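Board notes (copied after class):
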Amino acid sequence: MAAAMGRPASKLIRIRLKPKAESLVRHGHPWVFASSVKEQSRDGTAGELVVVHDRRERMVALGLLDPDSPIRVRIVHRGKPAAIDREWWRAQAIRARERRELPADTDGHRWINGDSEGFPGLVADRYAGTLVVKLYSSIWLPRWDEVEAVLREVFAPRHLVLRMSRNLVARAREAGLEEGFRGDARDEVVVFRENGIRFEAAVRHGQKTGFFLDQRDNRARVEALAAGREVLNVFSFSGGFSLYAARGGASRVVDLDISAHALEAAGRNYQLNADEPRIARVAREQVKADAFEWLEACDRRFDLVVVDPPSLAQRERDREGALGAYRKLNAAAIRLLRPGGILVAASCSAHVRGDEFLGLVRGLARHGGRPCEERWTSGHAPDHPAGFPEAEYLKAICLEFG
């Protein structure tokens, strides 16, 4: 094992875990919290290789040290010893690429979904010929050159943009690594296709990596429901659900968002698709307002309401407040539905479990005094796999009301 690791085995960081944590790692959980470490051979720096041993000195797993995070070690391998080197990362990236089965008219999607695909704290999204890589952990700072070379080889982007979570920017700068285009600079807004609809992605400064790619399948489901309906898109952002609804034959689409910047982006996305007759002819309206206040005061009625807010629970302590907010939003949305109207409600709050959110919306429907049929529920899209409970953030439900 020593030669494969690139440093003598005696110099590798060795840890032992408390029994419960050891069991979780053996069964596939990729995080080792600092509070779960029973013994650690020495201190180390971010990105160093860690060997997890059991009480009989057998190797359980290999991980990368993240000393400044509550997640002390991020697991990358279980079982027999292995070389965690350039070829290792290349094989992981190839496996991620080969898992994707995407339509020919889609060139905006996720290539690598972090811890669930063996790249802890790293996501890589494709927007046409541009690859946007976002780092959420300092483990990648000393390994970036190696990983960048692998990503370029496996995914062959024309351009690559590096982005980081806010807590990493200063530390990365100290290590000589800056955010932005790697190599030749290009336009910060990239146009890509999703199921044939064109969107712009602000790859350098936009939210997430430039677009909310994770709702692609749910947008397609809304398209299938929209024919002849007046649609309200709450927290519309850059108009993703609205454009799908328009192509699906909606009679009118109303975008509701508090951000003028978001509404302007939605307008540009409509222009990008002006050659699609169904999108071009839909009656379109934009409302700049606080969604909570506007829904409460609204006296209009709609045939289809999409409620897809940003995360309402950034931390566990926000959970109860988020549940209250989801209850208020969706109760107001149900009130605005005409007979035969449809609610599509989504949550991207990781600290609100799927059963909690779905149960909440079902409870609102059950006690609303109207007949109701559940059409579907959904979770993560195939290119956003969730391999452990904490990674399961996205959930949605569709209900039709009498």
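Comment from the instructor: The radius of gyration is 23 Å. The longest helix spans residues 319-335.
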